[in-house]
Amino acid sequence: MHKIIISDTSTLIILHKINELNILQQVYGELITTPEIAEEFGEKLPDWITVQSVTDEKYQRFLETQVDRGEASAIALASEFEDVTLLLDDLKARKLALQLKLRTTGALGVIHKAKQMAIIPKVKPFIDKMLLTNFRISKNIIDEILKLNDE
């Protein structure tokens, strides 16, 4: 489980809003994020999240022409590692990351993985809490996650 996990702001924010940020630590152990994302998050990050700057700032600026600053920093940082998974919820950013051959998942993927690992008994209560926030999830994706988890 020494794979590199890099989180964008959206996954941190939604899990923080539903008081389940710790599920990231339970699923992945440690995460990395960027100073831009830490700033966007706006809260003190737990000590299991390392803040690391992108080495290739020119590449990050190029990515910023296609996605927002935080997402660009996450994608640029992920490009600096071999075995990495990006936690991204924005569809445009996910598509860009996939074009760059980067593995992605989002908040719902984290919840799904937590269920697979028996960290949580059901995904539906988490989805219900997410739906009470401003987090947008299509009904098709919700149905798919519930079906995958036999709920």
UniProtKB/TrEMBL annotation:
Domain of life: Bacteria
Official protein name in the record: DUF3368 domain-containing protein
Species whose genome carries this gene: Flavobacterium agrisoli
